[in-house]
């Protein structure tokens, strides 16, 4: 059992998640009983390719090791890894880079990785508790709610509560004459889907792979899936991605598969500052920052030089981050922090950051990271119309 905490300045909600693990069975885990050998190997290849940060040769070496140990290709008739590589080339997923003399992925493969990540996250959402996750992809529009109110001038008549309206009319009507008055009319409240500008911050500091735990791969998957969701379902929304270590820098959607952790400290202040500046240029009423991190802020740029301190919570560094969080609040930019570690220092920092911005924070396991981010993103696209 893993536990996820949702922290807000007012209260803390606790959700318990239960997981069951079983030995992998290629016949059970296929997407369909008729899945081809290529599609079966493609699932594994895309998973390894994400972990390898887009390094085709490394992913294929890992596939060969796994095949040697588990005999994956033994279940196929006349189809081995060499055939798989040839088909990858024929279908346009990989190509030979003549200058570097190595295999590289194509734009088609990058799109496929984003789609794969999106499908994986929504597969987990589908398995969640009933009612926990909203997966509505209708884009702009109105969603009727069960609550009703009195009709007002300009309300959409398609949202009339016919039962409630008739009951009101019956109260003052007779059998011989029905007398419908304006005050009788009830309409359903609706959720209106609004456009949202989002900046996703991804921590690439060294701690994201510290102690043998791969935290960067789930973060990359979420970034790829979120970008695919927005590109295909919410065309009026915007998504910018910022990576941060010693400094912060913008990342293109096409660059996501290649992100790597470096020997970096954690410059949270500059990441938030860059996100705020990006959102200033976005002409949206709704603006938000999603930050995926596992570390406390440990550095800032001071007088053009890197000031760093990895021991405890350095108040000089923390205060700079909190100042940035307050600036975001003043600019009506919500910060939602997705913390994928539970060090007490981190919880203290997240609590201060959340209170300074009046935002939200999730303490989530790596397995649930995508689900919580997608749930929050889709919910934030809606505002209640009354």
From TrEMBL:
InterPro entries: VWF_A, vWFA_dom_sf. Residues 136-147 have a biased composition (Basic and acidic residues). It holds the Pfam family VWA_2. Residues 129-152 are annotated as: Disordered. Gene3D superfamilies: von Willebrand factor, type A domain. Residues 198-296 form the VWFA domain. SUPFAM superfamilies: vWA-like. This is VWA domain-containing protein.
